[in-house]
Amino acid sequence: MEKEKIIKVTVGGAQYAYPYGTSYRKIAADFQERFSCDILLVKQDGALRELHHVLKRECVLEMVTAQDVPGIQTYERSAVFLMLKAFYDVVGRQDVERISIEYSLSRSIFVLAQGNFTLDQALLDRIEERMRELSAQALPIEKQSIRVDEAMELFRQAGMLHKAQLLSFRLDSHVNVYSLDGFVDYFYGYMVPDTGYIRCFGLELFEDGFVLRLPTLKNPNQLGGFHPSKKIFRELHESSRRSQALNASNVAELNTTVAQGGATPLILTYEAMMEKKIGDIAAEIAGRRQVRFVMIAGPSSSGKTTFSHRLSTQLRACGLRPHAIATDNYFKNRVDTPLDENGQYDFECLGAMDVEQFNTDMVRLLHGETVELPSYNFKKGVREYNGTYLTLEEGDVLVIEGIHCLNDQFTHSLPKQSKYKIYISCLTTLNIDDHNRIPTTDARLLRRIERDARTRGYSAQATIKRWPSVRRGEELNIFPFQDSADVIFNSALIYETSLLKPYVQPLLFGVPRDSEEYIEAKRLLKFLNYFLPIPADNVPKTSLMREFIGGGCYHV
Q: How far is the CA of 347 from the CAs of 55, 276, 333, in angstroms?
């Protein structure tokens, strides 16, 4: 009898021995007690693997739970699959016209459903009950590689025409599909091995659809709070309707437009819609005679600087004289900057700003006084005065952009009626297909990778490494104040990922395979593979996208 082959596995710095062919799920079970939530994936020598894979060679294994980003993404994806299966089971496939996973909303996923049924909480309660039945049965979620043409025919017969259309642009001969108790679907990313892993979820009626409530990265064992921003929701909903009207609500439709030579009309249409929205905002500001301070804030890579320039142009067209003020010039001297929990300078907190000096200067300007404005020397880390003076006269407005501009503590001395607050963010509503959404953060990260490389010389690895810190700063300093804005401006452009693809792809390929950031780089590369590229030739020089790819008419 042939001797069983034993493989050495390193976990947490210690070595263990397992027979060749042992599943990662079985190995994970041996270490589960060390973790407060389920192990959902493993990293094999730094590469993500689903738990159904088996051990074939000596390696280092790391356990991945829902407290890790790839883990919580896997949990969300698996919960969506479970919800879809339960929805079809309860309603009946013949009565479901379409179920569309739209976008993230307050730690939940907003879903639209159409068909021969009445969407109410009673129906959602039945679907949630079915989800729990399926979860309790711990049914396997099986992965299978099939030919692309077979998958296309399978999805056509199932009425999932968007998936069949998307796969028509795939160059690979095979595609991975997942099946759950006879229900087959395609997903962009990894899955848990069975439904028993999906225990924390809820369904709740919301507006003209419903939300799938999910746990959070901080606490994967309980549901996150559902406190949606109605302003953000309305902007997302409006953007979705615009995309649908232009037949560009998902990547398959976008690729079809590009393949048929319709990229330029699509670009110009979206740019025209954005210019109209900026013009409408300028007209509203001009109609409020008491407004002297236009305050603009938004998360990283939202296009705030270009938006400020375009808004200033529209304000001039309305008869006003805009003056740009950068709040960065009101940073405290570096030696006075607060430190974060890691002992590093926290440049994103409100305490890093000289709030009192800013308020003193703005109040003096409001009263018609002449003020010498500061300039921050980032090399020396000090605020300087170089003879830049400003006096506000009739028709003058200050266009002020900065991370804290929506926070009334930052402008505590300014009368409410003198401020017009704008929240700008890249709120993408384009999805891969009806069941695979694109996180808004992905669009912003792609923008930032290209801009950082072009203007700062940063590698994609460096940008990806810093991104979690950037996101934490946004959670603390920007998102809590978004509802205080007078208007929400969505800077997402439906064509932008196709535009960014040729710029960002080479940068992502430059991320070392043995680095922590490679997993995210690989995920983004797989994501970009779904898009047909669009050349930049016909993108206007005033476009927000020029802030990221270059070639614009503004100095940003």
A: 46, 35, 11
Helix axes 518-528, 460-477, angle to 10 degrees: 90
Q: What is the dihedral of CA 385, 391, 392, 393, to 10 degrees?
A: -160
Asked, colleague to colleague, whether 6-65 and 71-230 share their fold, the answer is no
pLDDT in tens, 448-505: 999 999 998 999 999 999 999 889 888 889 999 999 999 999 999 999 999 999 999 9
What's the CATH number for 6-65? 3.10.20.30
H helices of 182-303, in order, are 230-245, 251-259, 263-287
Q: How far apart are CA 549 and CA 500, in angstroms?
A: 8
State which amino acid sits at residue 472: R
pTM of the model: 0.90
Give the whole-angstrom CA distance, residue 311 versus residue 240: 24
> Domain 235-549 adopts which CATH fold?
Rossmann fold (3.40.50)
Q: What's the topology of domain 71-230?
A: Threonyl-tRNA Synthetase; Chain A, domain 2 (3.30.980)
Domain boundaries, the chain: 6-65, 71-230, 235-549
